[in-house]
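Worked Example 4.2. Read the sequence first, then its structure tokens.
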Amino acid sequence: MLGKRLTKVILPKAVRTLKALKVKPAFSYLEAHLVDQCNLNCKGCGHFAPVADIWFADPNGYARDMRQLQKLVSTIHMIRLLGGEPLLHPKIEHFLFSTRSYFPKAEIRIITNGILLNTMPDSFWEACKTYSIEIDFTVYPPLFQKEKFLVNLSIGKGVKIHNSRASSFFAWSNLKGNTDPNLAFKKCRSRDEYNNLREGKIYCCWVSSNVHSFNKRYGTHIPITGFVDIYASDLTGWILKDMLEIGSSTCRYCAAGWDCPPSFPWSTSKMQMSEWDASTYM
């Protein structure tokens, strides 16, 4: 009973007090897309990389976004830089510098499939060490045999690496668009936060920020909603957090609201629309 009371009474009261004192909130998690395209053609990629156009985030625009976020929040505990494949960005070191400059206490990680790790210049590894950047190495089947080599490479460069194998994907898309959006959002948020920064906007999940690629390829009209413009007038960090805790019409196209979203073995994409539809794997 005391635990429930702490959650329902004391914590909300503490939050109201912080708001009244105009104390900036902390963010627990943020993702930032550096590129849309990828060098590994994964079937049903949740970020739609196989059907994405070539796009590189602007380093100067990203630095402005980091500066603006610093005005809104006190810190961000975890920031992950991803894609697509982020190591494809020719100026990735600029993003490492900007992220660390504006959020000195954040845990910052690069999410990579590892293909390019042994081709990265010394300046990349030096930037990782200098700015305390860690690497999340998602090991897909084509890289299983190189996993140990690439892990040892990173360790030898003095950069901390977290490696985990992925031999299957979950199918998160419900192309019928008939999912209960509130239920989908609630279940999605119960698993984790997926706040996603892209060109001055923070989206409540990666689907909203990347589904434009899917719409363009297949002529669909999945809504691009559930985002907040971080440059909006009168926006505060508290308002930003509250707005990101509201589901959107995009959630109607998510299988997260299903009792058990299906999974499928990793394989290469054939660019068929059905690859992304959860009903294909039922």
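Now turn to a second chain, presented in exactly the same format:
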Amino acid sequence: MLEIGYKASAEQFPASELLGYARLAEEAGFQSVAVSDHFQPFRHTGGHAPAALPWLGALAATTSRVRIGTSVSTPTMRVHPSIMAQAFATIDNLAPGRIFLGVGTGESVNEVPATAMEWPGFSERLGRLEEAVELMRRLWTEERVTFEGRWYRTARATVYDRPEQLIPILVAAAGPRAARFAGRVGDGFITTSGKPAELYRETLLPAVAEGIAKAGRDPDAYERLLEVKVSYAADVETATADCRYWAPLALPAEAKQGVEDPRELARLADRLDDEQAASRFICTGDPDEAVEGIAPYLELGFQHLVFHSPAADQLGFLERFAAEIAPRLRAL
């Protein structure tokens, strides 16, 4: 069953405005809302970075139907996993059964400025995440948890308002090693659109399946979430121009590696032309063309699609998407 979600872009809008868009998404028929969890935006000038946890609490208390969660939190550096477990248990108490937690190994642009830590290698980051996931699940199900890990410890810790059922943890991955980890440890897998088709078909999804099989999990109960970048406007020219704010997404991974200043990210991104800046997005003013670009992801097996629009006019996007694209997707 297809689940259609809305990406609340915390890097682009202040918290109160973003909360209004998320509520409107529920009214427009979207089934989920996922919010960014960044300490810094990709742009210093005109950027925003509201804290995801209190924002989700406000959304939980003022909505009644949509599933809500993060895409993606890092419960390993800025926030200790025991505090993340407590926070999400509280949010789940506000919206029981509607919460999911998206997690990943983090980005230096968020973790280093907030902690002044030396940015660890991928093996350590993945090890920290595995330990964090184990600790959070224990805190959601056990009392007086004494945890002796390599990176995290607790002494007789209790989350007093535990969720009635385990909060689903979805693991983000952009490479095979993290994807195998996501299949083995997560309740679901998160990745983003706009990359070569063979990456999903030949690398990421097979690695997820390998992890699921290794852990003896049920592949049919496993969630596959894709954040789909769609710029849908009156015409393709406007749709392309709307992507300029998000040009940092188009930078190759090696260009962003170790860049911790959003001013520098913006400087690198502003060297791209409009077509390059929009390269991660499906840019169109034609609903059939939009669906044509989205359909291959459904064929790959993604059943939860969270749509990220770069437009300043989020209300217009929500209305047009709900009326013109969502019915076409559900009819496939």
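Notes for the reader: The chain has 13 helices and eleven strands. Residues 113 and 242 are 29 Å apart (CA to CA).
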